[in-house]
Amino acid sequence: MSLSNFGMDSHIEGKVSSFNSLEELTIEVCSSKLWWDKIVDTVKKEVAALEKLTSLQFCFPEVDCLELFVTTSPVWKKNSCMTFQFANGHSDSTSPQILESFCYASNNSLKLVNRNGVNPIMLKLLMKTYAFGLINHKGVSRLSDFDMKNMDKMLVCLIEGCNEIKTIINGNGITQGVLKCLEHLCINNVLKLESIWQGPVYPGSLAQLKNLTLKMVMESENNGLEANALPSLKTLILLDLPKLTSIWVDDSLEWPSLQRIKISMCNMLRRLPFNNANATKLRFIEGQESWWGALMWDDDAVKQKLQSLCILN
């Protein structure tokens, strides 16, 4: 059953719980609407009482709403195979959909919008989450503040507008590989970001990462990875990074799966981390002619090889 944008005058009380055999429920509403706050208490209690749910899509405006569902829902307590797409926090229609571009619409997703800090309920949900969106979140300086062991199942991660985050993963204190299943990582408008990874990198970390997108990040440096790091990376997208001077400190990474690079508005980027031996599967380099013309090369043969892959505008 789907309920979409029902109005303030809707008589919702008792309606949801009356469908006691309901298995799939989607409630779509703009959580910034004040009238939603007035009825959400009733709705959340009735949703939590449903005993046969197998799929739930719902926006919980406050953490206590989310906590009520997790602590009282008989379906959740049974540790069933119920799938969920949860949003927590007040958002508007411009907030990105983290599953929009990926084929994981039926997987468990959690989107935290305009929240603060780390709540134990968030950690419980993360353990079952495949797609995670952290949007305009405050009170954390890195993704690993949510405890990496809670992210073993994560396939997709979007971090946007979180201007207190300085690094994504702090490897100090970690004793094993993390984010082993992550396939898509998108970082957008994180203005204080200094690095994606800080500290030691254990084998298996980011081993399945296929797509990496960085957009509107002021500073970001990357070092410390082994030559065989990022073995599955196929697509690298760098957009509007005005202070980026290098993708990698040298050409030591193997890039064994890399097929496509897209670079735009990265005017200080003067070198590419490729040579005649690495990135053997690279097929497309997208960017501006002015940027390509300003690149510096140590080997003209590498330039000629890569130029044949260029799609410039």
Brief summary:
InterPro entries: At4g27190-like_LRR, LRR_dom_sf, Plant_NBS-LRR. By secondary structure, this protein is of the alpha/beta class.
Whole-number count of domains: 3
Low-confidence stretches: none
Figure out the total of helices. 6
Number of strands: 15
Mean pLDDT: 85
Distance separating the two termini = 47 Å
Helix content: 10-25%
Name the beta content range. 15-25%
Reported for the largest beta sheet, the result is: 13 strands, parallel
Radius of gyration based on Cα positions? 22 Å
Spell the H/E element sequence.
EEHEHHEEHEEEEEEEEEHHE
3D shape: elongated
**Structure classification:** alpha/beta
For the biggest β-sheet, the strand order reads 1-2-3-4-5-6-7-9-11-12-13-14-15
